[in-house]
Amino acid sequence: MKKILTLTTIIVSAIAFSQTGIKFEDSNFKSILQKAKKENKLIFLDAYTTWCGPCKLMAKNIFPLQKVGDYYNANFVNAKIDMEKGEGLELAKKYKVQAYPTYLFIDGDGKEVHRTLGYVKEDDFIQFGKDALQPENRLSSLIKRFEDGETNPDFLKSLAEKTMFSDKDLFGRVLSKYFEVNKGKELTKDDVNLLLQSVNSLESPSYQIFKDRKSEIEKVITPATYKSINNSLLLSKVYKNTYNKETKTLDEKQYLKQAEEFLTKDEAQKALLSLKGNIAFSKKDFSTWQNLMLEKYKDTTDADANELNSVSWRFFENINDKNALLKAITWAEASVKKDEGSYNTDTLAHLLNKVGDKQKAKIWATKSIELAKAKGEDFSETQKLLDSL
Is the N or the C terminus of the chain less surrounded, counting Cβ atoms within 10 Å? Predict the structure, then answer.
């Protein structure tokens, strides 16, 4: 018996010693706050969703690492909460989580002191934690430096990147200041990407920069892309002018009239179909939405790969009419032809399986996994589909 107990002890000890990675609390947020306060630690909260690819990759590649676990387990009370379920819904609102994964560092009183986001490698992720523990490097301290008048361009650019998905107003102000102090300097690709993140309406402070520096921006994103973005902003204004919030009705004649001031008649008609489709989809009137999309995508020549993939996937999720699904398959095929990737080959595989063509579904699911592996992308959902075929 002694030998058995000794062996058991060795096995248990070995298992305990072999455990690596971040240890996440298995309790509600209130209990986590209490524990953080009692231990005088910050909470590290991984704010994720089940559909988020980078979230899955962090959980698979980064969180389990020994070095990461050693640092985060020693310095934080760690929590992992789905922002679209249970208490995660309220936490997402409270902490203004708008992109995934977002990493929040919160004190025992529930006050956010630092945040960052995205898929990052081991050393960068550990640095996030170190920044959270150093008051001068926390986002809250960086914001105070900005409010106190800091105008160093590198500082402003870094702060803009950190706030673009958490505080749109602050992000806009920081970016406007960044372009102000950099006036006269040529725009870089990073500058243009940041600018495009902040231009969300004709009234946004960054829109004037977008207009004034058109020729420079077009060198980075092409004139066609610039025109598409500008038209989208103009159409948003037209929508505001022609949609009655009280009656929840759209003046279609006025919408077309105003849209045709900067679009061709055909483009304006397609824009109207898109808008009506979005309204129907938001109301979960999928029958109306289906008919509008079938009308809009009779010709897919001008639609890009992402657009076609998006509407195809929505058909897969919400439509059961086989003829409509067969049409969606042609859209997914067009998407793949324009820009083959794991994302649209996966959509094509799911649609083919839904209409009963398991043989072709298997071919495209296999292709999707191959493409995902080549780029280090998550393919777990595609693998589930392939295993079921």
Answer: N
Count of CB atoms within 10 A of residue 176's CB?
Answer: 18
Contact 259, 271 (CB under 8 A): yes
pLDDT tens across 349-382, in order? 999 999 999 999 999 999 999 999 998 888 888 9
CA separation for the pair 112, 110 (Å, rounded) = 6
Give 39: exposed, middle or buried? Use CB within 10 Å, 0-12, 13-18, 19+: exposed
- Rounded-to-integer distance, Cα 254 and Cα 239, Å: 10
Which residues on adjacent β-strands are paired with residue 243? 250
- At 373, which amino acid appears? K
Question: Regarding beta strands 249-250 and 243-244, do their DSSP bridges make them parallel or antiparallel, or are they unpaired?
Answer: antiparallel
**What's the pLDDT tens digit per position in 284-303?**
999 999 999 999 999 999 89
For residue 367, give the amino acid letter: K
Specify whether the CB–CB gap between 110 and 33 falls below 8 A: yes
CA distance 258 to 256: 6
3-state class (DSSP) for residue 266: helix
pTM of the predicted model as reported, rounded to 2 decimal places: 0.67
How far from the centroid of its chain's Cα atoms is residue 318's Cα? 21
Each residue of 159-177: pLDDT tens digit?
A: 988 888 777 788 888 988 9
| Percent of all residues in the chain with a pLDDT value above 70, rounded to a whole number | 95
Rounded to an integer, what distance in angstroms lies between the CA atom of residue 368 and that of residue 382?
7
Among 44, 42, 52, residue whose Cα is nearest residue 381: 52
Cα 1 → chain centroid = 57
Alpha carbon separation from 379 to 62, 127, 154, 345, 367 (Å, rounded): 17, 28, 37, 11, 11
Pairing of strands 102-106, 112-117: antiparallel
CB within 8 Å of 287: residues ≥ 6 apart? none
What single-letter amino acid sits at 195?
L
Do 343 and 309 touch, CB atoms closer than 8 A? yes
Q: Is 208 helix (H, G, I), strand (E, B) or coil?
A: helix
State how far the Cα of 124 lies from the Cα of 129, in Å rounded to an integer.
9
- DSSP E strands, the chain: 42-48, 76-82, 102-106, 112-117, 243-244, 249-250
